[in-house]
Write a structure and sequence with these properties.
about 325 residues, Rossmann fold, 15 helices, binds S-adenosylmethionine
């Protein structure tokens, strides 16, 4: 059995566990909230944050928190990256087993997404001593209170273009009582709603999400749209395109409009402030007419695809790889 004292080099414990806990706190999520989102018991998150639990729970938590590692091999998922790293270092399973004190079977299981967090940490300390959390790209308002940063509301003049081109909004899944966005149904966190777990509904959803959890919301929008819960989704988000998921999955399904100029969002006091970053619309299920009307009304352009990329779009829908 692995001994806790020799198992963890404190540095590794910190990288994988303390930073994950910090990422959860920064997202403003309690252990219970994260547990609910992953569909696991709150105890599982408590244990995870002590370095105990399964790699599959860890991977789900990493995905939900947009927590990625750098310093591993290439690959979309952590197990693939572990395998790629071992192969890059020309290590056989036997060699790695000898160096880590783990069994060959345990390492093979970790490379399949199985095994325990303790084994994973031990493996990483030998296989990738320079592994670090990949810094999330900054596309938010700046320093300061997170709740304040995320409480920026879409101004009515910007919404006019959305209503005129896309029609009335059925759902705002991240609404706020202070927001001027007009929607038939509004999911409001302070009233017990949760746009990340409540089912979406209606024809058109408009999503101006908390930018500090941008990818989490885009994934949710994509998932609900793919599940047929809403016909069309229009997301107003920072131009943040660095993730593999954006390139490999979202961009294949979305039509993207790059906005010229900056939107002046309203804060909780009604004061207007322009974003310190560029914005885009990420739309899912928008019709050619809606897109044309929007381009006539609002300055910017729809990203076009090359014939080659378009060909890829015509292939069967990609599997969801969250
Ligand atoms: C950038 S504001 C946008 C509000 C509104 N959609 C608009 O466009 O004016 C994002 C809002 O999402 C809310 N929010 C954060 N997490 C949420 C969740 N899990 N479910 C629903 N709303 C959430 C925050 O309270 C914040 O008011």
């Amino acid at each position: 059995m692995l001994d806790g004292r020799t198992l963890y080099d404190p540095k590794w414990y910190q990288i994988m566990i303390d930073e994950l806990r910090e990422a959860r706190r920064l997202a403003g999520w309690s252990q219970r909230t994260l547990a609910d989102r992953l569909g696991v018991d709150a105890q599982a998150i408590k244990r995870l944050e002590k370095g105990i639990g399964s790699v599959s729970t860890l991977i789900s938590a990493m995905t939900a928190l947009d927590f990625q590692l750098t310093g591993l091999g290439s690959g979309r998922s952590l197990p693939q990256q572990l395998r790629a790293r071992r192969q890059k270092r020309s290590m056989s399973l036997d060699t790695l087993a000898r160096k880590t004190g783990l069994s060959r079977t345990t390492i093979a299981s970790l490379e399949q997404g199985g095994g325990s967090v303790a084994s994973l940490l031990r493996l990483l300390s030998v296989l990738a001593p320079r592994v670090r959390r990949r810094a999330p790209e900054r596309a938010y308002w700046g320093q300061g209170d997170k709740e304040d940063r995320d409480s920026r509301f879409t101004p009515p003049e910007f919404m006019e273009g959305i209503y005129a081109a896309f029609g009335p909004i059925d759902l705002d899944p991240c609404a706020n009582t202070l927001s001027p966005v007009i929607a038939r149904r509004r999911i409001i966190l302070s009233e017990g709603g949760d746009g990340l777990t409540d089912d979406w509904s209606g024809r058109l959803a408009f999503v101006n999400p908390p930018f500090s959890a941008l990818l989490v919301w885009l994934r949710r929008a994509h998932e609900q749209w793919r599940a047929g819960m809403v016909e069309t989704v229009v997301c107003l988000v920072p131009v943040r395109t660095d993730s593999a998921w954006f390139h490999d999955t979202l961009s294949a399904d979305a039509a993207i409009y790059l906005l010229k100029g900056r939107v002046r969002f309203l804060d909780t006091t009604g004061r207007a402030q322009a974003t310190p970053f560029s914005l885009m619309l990420v739309t899912l299920g928008a019709t050619a007419e809606q897109k044309e009307r929007y381009a006539q009304l609002v300055q910017g352009f729809w990203l076009s695809r090359t014939a080659e990329t378009q060909g890829e779009q015509d292939q069967p829908m990609p599997r969801l790889t969250y």
